[in-house]
Amino acid sequence: MTDMTYTKPLPAPVKFIPGLALVAGIATLAIAAGSNxxxxxxxxxxxxxxxxxxxxxxxxxxxxxxxxCNDGVAFAKQKLLRVGIVLYGFRLTFQQIADxxxxxxxxxxLVLSSxxxxxxxxxxxxxxxxxxxxxxxxxGSSICGAAAILATEPVVKADPAKVTVAVATVVLFGTLAxxxxxxxxxxxxxxxxxxxxESYGIFIGSTLHEVAQVVATGHTLGTQAENTAxxxxxxxxxxxxxxLVLLSWQIRRLRPASxxxxxxxxxxxxxxxLLFIAVALFNSLHLLPQEMIGTINQxxxxxxxxxxxxxxxxxxxxxxxxxxxxxxxxxxxxxIWLIVGGGAINLLADHLMA
Length: 354
Prior knowledge:
By secondary structure, the chain is an all-alpha fold. It contains 16 helices and no strands. The radius of gyration is 21 Å and the shape is globular.
């Protein structure tokens, strides 16, 4: 009789528990730390801190517990991410569009498209980066920082290390902008008399990376600047879904056919992006009480933080070292463009649509 060693696999639901428990613990810590006034004042929200804590765990403890935790971590990084992006629509209403007006929409569209196309050109032609890294950095810089990078990752199917590098660029330069933008306001107002607190708020919302960074920057300049900055930023966030649909189509078009004439492989359609728009439309009807919306947003924060934590624990420092300085240089040039080019777009739009 042959002696065989057999390890019975865990039941399907049970196998996710260790990994989900790990990322839930990291997310809870990140959310608690993100509520600290010193950290939130720097624009370091729960999502950013979750990936930082996740990276620390991933490069110390996680290598020893990868086997039992892998399934749950992968579930958080993929499934919870998509659900979190869909629920993000409950933060938005289409009524917010009317508060900023057509000029705000035009400004956001021009800043978004010019920044992303510049990222593609610089990343490929100047820095010779791979398409996935370029697309991720471009999405994070042009739309809404880490949330846009997380939403873009399932479409481009990038490695966790590339996602982390992209997140690092928007965190670095977005945090720098929190201190720089208030210093630029008096200069902008002196050089261009048409610049007001409201118009500068639109500039902040249309060019700064993260929502938390927009709130922190606008808050330092007063209520008027903060309100218009947040609304302009929310408009950019709403453009995430059509952006993902167009990017998915572009990936399908660029994917080469095989040498034997086999049809190009299918690219998964980002249905979660369309659900994101549907949720925002539903939220515009104001059918749910504010208490329920607040609870949904808190649940969404947890899901997105868990997805970020999962991304962090699967990222290794040696991957970041191999990425080198080129991604950061790309992020730096995009940051400069957002200030200079984005400022020019804001001034031109105000002048032509006044």
